[in-house]
């Protein structure tokens, strides 16, 4: 059993710049938790503190109940995979993986057995004699993953490991890494700013902003029920429209939706796939652009005051630029004072 617990951890850099502010999280045994947020949200700093590469300004980090807050990286039961691979270019693949095992003074036969086993695990059996510069970007990242796994860490830390790869390779590798993580049952903390990666890989997602937690939940809940306007706008594509509620109706430039909350300002949130369109001469919106993706279409719309909306449609050929349409929201949420106050 390997449980990572982060309690009220903070990091303040020189000049009183607060990167992480009293952050708490528990990652359960075998769980993969993703730290998701924009650049500067504190997610990589937090991961580096867990790995021992940054010293916390306050708080406690424990692994299986043992305090590791001030231990150096080599004394922690963690393995970290960096975005840059950080492989030794003067060593072949085998020596890259064997280095840490040799520091532990393991017998040569055991070192070879462990290295060959982990190479097979990551799909690189027979690659031990190759130099790292002879490998593709995806293969180098597999070696970086193998180098961490061969040490059998209790906690695996992944710092945007696929950021430098092209989209197709990124998608394939994230599936492979998730399969390996589940097969090994290794507790994992994963940093990314890619929403697709978080939604595809994580058991839970932690959405971070300015060193704080905005929401912690399962991927489906973060997408379907974002708790703050920031999460709503950051995860996937969301139409966020500020307007006024009067007598249980939200209104903004012809966009109207039932909203049984007290009168006053509110922000309406509706996903493109939940915003239906219907051709209407007196419609509230005008089609600005239509993009056909083959599987679906995306229609950019303008309200009368210039507010831009997006709608996902099954038949994009039914809509043309300049056409007026009626808007029919099928599922909405309302936010006020940075909190969700209504959801339909």
Name some characteristics of this structure.
single chain, 344 residues, alpha+beta, OB fold (Dihydrolipoamide Acetyltransferase, E2P), 2 domains, six-stranded mixed β-sheet, six-stranded antiparallel β-sheet, 21 strands
**What's the alpha carbon Rg, rounded to whole Å?**
24 Å
Number of helices: 8
CATH superfamily of the largest domain: P-loop containing nucleotide triphosphate hydrolases
Give the overall silhouette.
Answer: elongated
Distance between the termini: 40 Å
Q: What does the secondary structure layout of this molecule look like, with pairings?
A:
Layout (H helix, E strand, L loop, with lengths): L3 E10 L3 E11 L4 E5 L6 H9 L6 E6 L2 E2 L10 E4 L11 H11 L4 H14 L15 H13 L5 E5 L7 H18 L2 E6 L2 H7 L2 E6 L2 E6 L1 H6 L4 H6 L4 E8 L2 E4 L2 E4 L5 E7 L4 E5 L5 E8 L4 E7 L4 E6 L10 E6 L3 E4 L2 E5 L1
Parallel strand pairs: 3-8, 3-9, 6-7, 7-8
Antiparallel strand pairs: 1-2, 1-4, 4-5, 9-10, 11-12, 11-14, 12-13, 14-20, 15-19, 16-17, 16-19, 17-18, 20-21
Structure, described:
- This protein is an alpha+beta fold and 344 residues long.
- It folds into two domains: 4-231, P-loop containing nucleotide triphosphate hydrolases (Rossmann fold, 3-Layer(aba) Sandwich); 238-343, Nucleic acid-binding proteins (OB fold (Dihydrolipoamide Acetyltransferase, E2P), Beta Barrel).
- Helix content is 24%, strand content 36%.
- It has eight helices and 21 strands.
- The protein has helices spanning 43-51, 93-103, 108-121, 137-149, 167-184, 195-201, 219-224, 229-234; strands at 4-13, 17-27, 32-36, 58-63, 66-67, 78-81, 155-159, 187-192, 204-209, 212-217, 239-246, 249-252, 255-258, 264-270, 275-279, 285-292, 297-303, 308-313, 324-329, 333-336, 339-343.
- The strands form four sheets. It has a six-stranded mixed beta sheet with strand order 6-7-8-3-9-10, sandwiched between helices.
- The model has no long low-confidence stretch (mean pLDDT 92).
């Amino acid at each position: 059993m390997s449980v990572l617990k982060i309690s009220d951890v903070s990091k303040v850099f020189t000049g009183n710049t607060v990167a992480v502010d009293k952050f708490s999280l528990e990652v359960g045994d075998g769980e993969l938790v993703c730290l998701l947020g924009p650049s500067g949200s504190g997610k990589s700093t937090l991961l580096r503190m867990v790995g021992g590469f940054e010293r916390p300004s306050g708080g406690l980090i424990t692994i299986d109940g043992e305090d590791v807050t001030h231990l150096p990286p080599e004394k922690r039961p963690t393995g970290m995979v960096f975005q840059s691979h950080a492989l030794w270019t003067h060593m072949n693949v085998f020596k890259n993986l064997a280095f840490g095992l040799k520091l532990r003074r393991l017998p040569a036969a055991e070192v070879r057995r462990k290295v060959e086993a982990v190479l097979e695990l990551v799909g690189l059996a027979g690659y031990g004699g190759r130099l790292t510069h002879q490998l593709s970007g995806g293969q180098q990242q597999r070696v970086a993953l193998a180098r961490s796994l061969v040490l059998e860490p209790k906690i695996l830390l992944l710092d945007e490991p696929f950021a430098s790869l092209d989209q197709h390779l990124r998608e394939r590798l994230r599936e492979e890494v998730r399969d390996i993580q589940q097969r090994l049952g290794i507790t994992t903390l994963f940093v990314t700013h890619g929403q697709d990666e978080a939604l595809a890989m994580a058991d839970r997602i932690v959405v971070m902003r300015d060193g704080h937690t905005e929401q912690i939940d399962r991927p489906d809940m973060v997408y379907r029920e974002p708790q703050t306007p920031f999460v709503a706008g950051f995860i996937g594509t969301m139409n966020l429209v500020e307007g006024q509620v009067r007598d249980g109706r939200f209104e903004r430039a012809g966009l109207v939706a039932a909203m049984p909350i007290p009168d006053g300002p509110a922000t309406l949130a509706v996903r493109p796939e939940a915003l239906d369109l219907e051709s209407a001469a007196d419609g509230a919106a005008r089609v600005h652009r239509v993009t056909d993706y083959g599987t679906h279409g995306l229609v950019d719309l303008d309200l009368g005051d210039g507010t831009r909306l997006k709608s996902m449609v099954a038949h994009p050929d039914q809509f043309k630029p300049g056409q007026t349409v009626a808007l029919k929201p099928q599922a909405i949420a309302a936010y006020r004072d940075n909190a969700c106050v209504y959801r339909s």
